[in-house]
User: Which sequence fits this backbone?
DNA sequence: ATAGGTAAACTGCACCGAGTAGTTTACATT
DNA sequence: AATGTAAACTACTCGGTGCAGTTTACCTAT
């Protein structure tokens, strides 16, 4: 009964996996349906039995990858804990997310296409709903609690994440830089927290 | 003599301009030499008289665009001026650079390819030499002058630019967000300076 | 439970029309 | 006559389809 995977489903998964690799390696335009089918060890016809077109297959993959991040980095404001402690946890989990293999794959696949056609980007993102990082809500709560200066929380969150991504995302995505070690991750998180609180703490 | 030169040279420039548009719109793979030639109002053969291949034409354009930014944002440390003032100027000129049409074109064209093949990215960048933002030298000087805490200057510069780019670069590049108005630019620059100095000022 | 039958899915190939980078040919302008 | 041009041409690759024949999954009748 563990063999609950019918052969058809298995093929479908093979196709999705192969397509993910193909798109990641060559981009949307560079990817070839023939090469993809060969990769999946499946007839091209079978690919088209499962997915009506290259574009639909691409969207399907993007959705699939996005779904695996529905558990957004959720940070709940807690009066009992210090700001430093809470922010540090948020920063670290964000870094972990940026580090995760599948998240980086998603960005490899999508961002290149988004640069070339921002309308595709916005359509995809609005369809996925803003997986808004909950950080700005946390900031609002902290402001209400009188612990932070009153500021535009979305803007401040953007700054906070910008500091982190400058060290732990963009260099890796664009220039193949090595991902920071756990010690470096802690430093990056710590520095982001220090800078943020130096500016906004009451 | 100049006339004959200017005529063929004019065609050459037409081709380069058309190629820049074509690559910007469709990326390297999506760009077509036929469409490009039509754009330049020039025979395809003429294109191949000037450039031996699509790839060489692409490299030529990237180089050309990169050259126009050889004048990196250069900031000289001045004891006589306040840190705020100097940093604000640096931030604003960086934002101006990020805002400039041709700089954004360059990134539109190159970053999409860089994401897909980071080895191309590193080879291009090392060929261009690190157009290192002079900011980290400024930071070193300020540290020597006893005005800033002793920190890794490159890392701190990365943080500073990360804050700015989070608001004035990535959203525009990836999500077609409107570029900040002059007032917003001042706010972004001001906030980046505030945050940086709140953290690092002695 | 097993044998048999049916419907669905898979395969491999040939094929289509469009489009690609790059080359040759034949014409027109000077 | 010489040169540079446009148009046609080569030799592909692409996404996608049609089809004949094979394999798999599953349901039923014994």
Assistant:
């Amino acid at each position: 009964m563990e063999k609950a995977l019918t052969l058809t489903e298995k093929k479908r998964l093979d196709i999705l996996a192969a397509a993910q690799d193909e798109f990641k390696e060559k981009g949307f335009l560079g990817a070839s349906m023939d090469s993809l089918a060969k990769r999946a060890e499946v007839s091209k016809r079978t690919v088209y039995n499962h997915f009506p077109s290259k574009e639909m297959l691409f969207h399907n993959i993007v959705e699939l990858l996005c779904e695996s991040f529905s558990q957004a980095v959720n940070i709940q404001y807690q009066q009992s804990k210090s700001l430093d402690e809470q922010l540090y946890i948020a920063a670290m989990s964000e870094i972990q997310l940026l580090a995760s293999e599948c998240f980086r794959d998603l960005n490899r696949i999508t961002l290149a296409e988004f640069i070339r056609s921002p309308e595709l980007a916005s359509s995809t993102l609005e369809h996925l709903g803003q997986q808004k990082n909950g950080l700005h809500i946390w900031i609002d709560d902290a402001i209400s609690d009188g612990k932070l200066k009153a500021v535009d929380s979305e803007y401040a969150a953007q700054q906070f994440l910008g500091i982190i991504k400058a060290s732990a995302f963009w260099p890796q995505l664009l220039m193949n830089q090595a991902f920071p070690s756990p010690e470096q991750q802690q430093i990056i998180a710590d520095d982001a927290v220090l800078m943020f609180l130096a500016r906004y703490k009451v």
